[in-house]
Amino acid sequence: MRILPILRIKGQDLFSVKRKDIINYSNHRKFQERTVRTRTRYPEAIRAGYILNNPNACSSYKKVSCLILVYSKVTYWRVREILRHTWINATLYQPYNVVFMFLIGTSDDPKLQDIIKNESAKYQDIVQGDFVDSYRNLTNKGVMGLRWVTENCRNAEMVIKIDDDAFINIFKLLKDFSHLKERKKFIYCNKIEKDDMPIERNKRNKWYVQEDSFRGYSYYPHTYCSGIVVFLSIDIIPSLYRAAMATPFFWVDDFYLFGILPSKIPGVRYEDMGGNFTDRHRDIIKCLNEKKIQCQYVAMMTKFIRITKIWDAVLQNLL
């Protein structure tokens, strides 16, 4: 039996009120219960400000030949230094105008933040969003990148998203893949077909997805990209950002950014990188040493400690 709380209605004890007052109170409670709403979460990066920004990175050029957005952990400032002293150095690719921007989130370490402020002032290649830098916040990092390009770099001819443990042979890209900039509504990546990739429901797994996300689905229901390296035609960037404004947050960034958002834009085409990408370090070195400038790999996944060796092999082929 449910026990009602003692209430006062119109100055009377519940036990002395009239039946119609109880009915009115009951109806009022039902109305309140019906108006409760669950707040839908959207990417924080849509409305959050920038902690650090370098909005003029593209404005000094009439055309940016290639804009490369590098996902970097906020704590990896030493890694960023290594990358800047190897392949992430725009002066190497002149007369082409190549722009690199590192995308990071926030840290609660004030000493680290001071390091990053100095880094940004020195290199002017940091965009820091007002969200915690974490694995499950990569969607926010990606949306921030879409926003930044939309606001600051519409003059880019080609946009590439890359993880900081990957490598692009920019020399080969500019020589053999310049045709990509002519494509419209185009995504070039390691393509994963619709209904090919299982949704991970095991709570112990790194890629665990809660049951209330894509309920009833066992596989991801859209074509999307493995996000290690993704080439995007500049014309779809603003459309992807607008789509994010109306698309609830989903933490698996590869699927959100390169699956869900493109599915909302009519006419988007995917092309698979196929043999132009590898994640096998030995294959990279062997290919560069044997085939030299004819090596087919334009992009590769690697480790920080191997970047210098790969870069040296690339430079040897230019001699």
TrEMBL record:
<dbReference type="GO" id="GO:0000139">
    <property type="term" value="C:Golgi membrane"/>
</dbReference>
<keyword id="KW-0812">Transmembrane</keyword>
<dbReference type="GO" id="GO:0006493">
    <property type="term" value="P:protein O-linked glycosylation"/>
</dbReference>
<keyword id="KW-0328">Glycosyltransferase</keyword>
<keyword id="KW-0735">Signal-anchor</keyword>
<protein>
    <recommendedName>
        <fullName>Hexosyltransferase</fullName>
        <ecNumber>2.4.1.-</ecNumber>
    </recommendedName>
</protein>
<dbReference type="Pfam" id="PF01762">
    <property type="entry name" value="Galactosyl_T"/>
</dbReference>
<keyword id="KW-0325">Glycoprotein</keyword>
<keyword id="KW-1133">Transmembrane helix</keyword>
<dbReference type="InterPro" id="IPR002659">
    <property type="entry name" value="Glyco_trans_31"/>
</dbReference>
<keyword id="KW-0333">Golgi apparatus</keyword>
<keyword id="KW-0472">Membrane</keyword>
<dbReference type="GO" id="GO:0016758">
    <property type="term" value="F:hexosyltransferase activity"/>
</dbReference>
<comment type="similarity">
    <text>Belongs to the glycosyltransferase 31 family.</text>
</comment>
<keyword id="KW-0808">Transferase</keyword>
